[in-house]
Design a protein that fits this description.
Elements: H1 11-15, H2 18-27, E1 30-33, E2 38-41, H3 44-52, E3 57-58, H4 80-88, H5 94-98, H6 101-117, E4 121-122, H7 123-128, H8 130-140, H9 147-162, H10 167-193, H11 199-204, H12 214-227, H13 230-245, H14 247-255, H15 260-270, E5 277-281, E6 285-287, E7 290-292, E8 297-300, H16 302-305, H17 340-357, E9 358-363, E10 368-369, E11 378-380, E12 382-387
Helix pairs in contact: 6-8, 6-17, 9-10, 10-12, 13-17
Bound molecules: protoporphyrin IX containing FE.
Length: 388
């Protein structure tokens, strides 16, 4: 295949972006997309540089393709970002998250019960979609039965990230955000009257005498429901696809369970659930002899950085013995993913239970990739799950 440019919205790029990323890294590490009028950064060192240079590469117009400022931590620069992150980060350290392990294990067991009971199971519908939304809903203390609504709101909000929306789609996104906010305001009212052992109650009474406004709590819980949902869904979908396509790696993991953490990092590296997010430049910046002017949109490609052969030799190869400690799937710098311990906990408990209960997986129909230039997962993955 001969690649001569990069168009994030082209169907073949969304299907398999990696040859296009290779072209970008080799030919245009600071690429200007004339059609969509944004810049693209693709090499590992450059992506890391941009993510760590928030004075120039700002998040304050949102991280999606459209300029959409939102009052959420992910879309704020210091000092507002620093204050919000300081208040909530304690609840997300691995030690606090580990307390959720017994409940997450129950949810994993239920998903695998359903997957094993079916002759052919659509892995996304039965495992990859429900598990993350159940986990984050329970952590927040909002009823799990509402997850169908969360998923719809979350999908609509994520559509906005990728950009290229029609006026009807934009109206749908606005309506979703209003419904979602109203729902969360009601949840806050309930928790104020009846505090419980959940995140919303903690946010209503943060430590160290800090105060979060109701608006800030709504924005933060909405961010968690969206950020913690589709991303982890994609990780769980990519995980099953990786092992079904590489039975040798599955056999290796079956023989040596100590490789589980490394296998999860390799899946995050090789098929990063978030392929890229946007920044906007607050001042002109020069690199590789190219100047990006102030006020430009810049797409920062985590997915390409994680395939940079300068850091990962033979990057397309799926190799669970590869030592991957520095991938950028969770970002880098001040916005480094707050929920990484949650995603890692879910993936670890799921993979360990799969190794206990499943002999192997077989593809049982057509596989479909998700279609969003910023995200990478599986939309359809029909599997025969052969019990151990
Ligand atoms: C495999 C799953 C996940 C992936 C790949 C992922 C990826 C990312 C990335 C790349 C960022 C940085 C965004 C940027 O630099 O603009 C980020 C930020 C964030 N993530 Fe995750 N995420 C995952 C799961 C989660 C979960 C489960 C939660 C919540 C429970 C979560 C909550 C957040 C939050 C709140 C931020 C914003 C942090 C800040 O602005 O300081 N994420 N995530």
């Amino acid at each position: 295949m001969s690649v001569t440019t990069y168009d994030p919205y082209a169907a073949e790029v969304m299907q398999d972006p990696y040859p296009y990323y290779a072209w970008l890294r080799e030919n245009a590490p600071l690429f200007h997309d004339e059609v969509n009028d944004f810049w693209v950064i693709s090499a590992f060192a450059d992506v890391q540089w941009a993510l760590r240079n928030h004075e120039v590469f700002s998040s304050n117009e949102g991280v999606g393709a459209e300029r959409r400022p939102v009052p959420m931590m992910i879309a704020l620069d210091p000092p507002d970002h620093t204050r919000l992150r300081r208040i909530v980060q304690h609840e997300f350290v691995p030690k606090s998250i580990a307390e959720w392990a017994p409940r997450v294990q129950q949810l994993v067991d239920a998903r695998l019960d359903d997957a094993l009971a079916a002759d052919v199971v659509d892995w996304p519908s039965v495992v990859a979609h429900p598990l993350p939304i159940q986990v984050i809903a329970e952590m927040l203390g909002v009823p799990g039965e509402d997850r169908i609504r969360f998923k719809r709101w979350s999908d609509d909000t994520l559509d906005a990230l990728g950009g290229g929306l029609s006026p009807e789609q934009s109206a749908k996104v606005e309506a979703a955000i209003i419904d979602f906010s109203q729902y969360l305001y009601d949840a806050i009212l309930t928790r104020r009257e009846q505090p419980a052992d959940d995140l919303i109650s903690l946010l209503l009474n943060p430590r160290k005498g800090e105060v979060l406004t109701d608006n800030e709590i709504v924005s933060f819980t909405m961010l968690l429901l969206v950020a913690g949902n589709e991303t982890t869904t994609n990780l769980i979908g990519n995980l099953a696809l990786a092992f079904v396509q590489h039975p040798d790696q599955w056999a290796l993991l079956k023989a040596d369970r100590t490789l589980v953490p490394q296998a999860i990092e390799e899946i995050l590296r090789r098929d990063s659930p978030i392929q890229g997010f946007f920044r906007n430049t607050l001042s002109a910046v020069e690199r590789h002899g190219v100047t990006i002017p102030a006020g430009e949109k810049v797409m920062v490609l985590f997915g390409s950085a994680n395939h940079d052969p300068a850091v990962y030799p033979d990057p397309e190869r799926f190799d669970i013995t590869r030592p991957v400690t520095n991938h950028l799937a969770f970002g880098s710098g001040i916005h480094l993913c707050l929920g990484a311990p949650v995603a890692r906990l879910e993936a670890t408990l799921l993979l360990q239970s799969m190794l206990d209960r499943i002999d192997h997986l077989e593809v049982a129909g057509d596989v479909e990739r998700t279609r969003n230039p910023l995200l990478r997962g599986v939309a359809k993955l029909p599997l025969r799950v052969v019990p151990a």
